[in-house]
Amino acid sequence: MILGDKITNLRKKAGWSQEELAHQLGVSRQAVSKWESGSSIPDLDKILRLSQLFEVSCDYLLLDEMEPELPQAEPEPVPILDGPQVPVHHITLEQANTYLDTVRGVASKIALGVFLCILSPTALIYLGGLSSEEGRFTLSEPLAGGVGILVMLALVSAAVALFLFFGSRLTPYEHLDNQPVELAYGVDGVVKKRQAEYQTTHLMLLVVGITLCILSLAPLMVAVAIDENGMAPIIGLILMFVIVAVGVFLLVRTCIIAGSFQRLLETGDYTREHKREENSPLTTIYWGLVLAIYLGWSFWTMAWDRTWIVWPVAAVLYAPVRSIAGLLTKK
């Protein structure tokens, strides 16, 4: 139980309203409301006054029952092996809440950019089908291709604008990805509380998003079964892109928000050990080499439709390469 919950329980046990408690402490009702919601933490003199009013010890108010150890325990040592020490960033409650709120607001915009990228080729596919369809409403292939490419470029441009504009709002927090953090007292409990409140939504969006991606082939399969040579397969293919785009939108949005909690709590993919590995020269050299191979192969063969396979292969090989490098380093 965090400090805010304890203040709420003690206030209700005493039969006081927020206004009455605020009058006792000489503060505003808004201040008490922020304490109870975890948006802010009372000053030390107010904590002393609270302990007197509720006849409890300061230890009871300050000790977080969610953590078995003392809240002011020594900071966790940064597991750096060899090399310069990485600075530890201290995060206050206000900074943590600001970061979480910023990520929640930006997540939908970045997910929308991914949504537009997935939908970008649909106009070209549809107009290409019209140009090859015999009937009263047909387009010439050059016109269909030109309009389709313009629509695709417009959607991709809009997506890039979303990535750049809203991604820039997260630039001040880039250190959370690769540098250790130390949370001020009470911040850990508040972040875990917000994470627990979002967990059900996160799981639901994961299930819906993954299900949509799996079922996205259904329209195409049905369309091919109905009319293999007409416009039906084209419509089915477009519906597949739309369903995938919606599913990926949900997945990207919820994973960005869930990742914000992991960055602050240093769990999942953002533990200190993982950050140390990501900061190692191996990571820079490996992905730089992969990029060079991809660009060199693509420009040499001009087979951009096939060279993308470099990236999933490189992602699969990265873990064993990193493990082998770690074993060699220890030896």
Automatic annotation (TrEMBL):
Name of the protein in its database record: Helix-turn-helix transcriptional regulator
UniProt key word Membrane: yes
PANTHER family (alphabetical): HTH-TYPE TRANSCRIPTIONAL REGULATOR IMMR, TRACRIPTIONAL REGULATORY PROTEIN-RELATED-RELATED
UniProt xrefs under SUPFAM superfamilies: lambda repressor-like DNA-binding domains
Keywords in alphabetical order: DNA-binding, Membrane, Transmembrane, Transmembrane helix
Domain HTH cro/C1-type: 7-61
TM region(s), chain numbering: 110-131, 143-166, 203-226, 232-261, 282-302, 308-328
Record InterPro entries: Cro/C1-type_HTH, Lambda_DNA-bd_dom_sf
Gene3D superfamilies referenced in this protein's UniProt entry, alphabetically: lambda repressor-like DNA-binding domains
Pfam families: HTH_3
GO-annotated molecular function: DNA binding
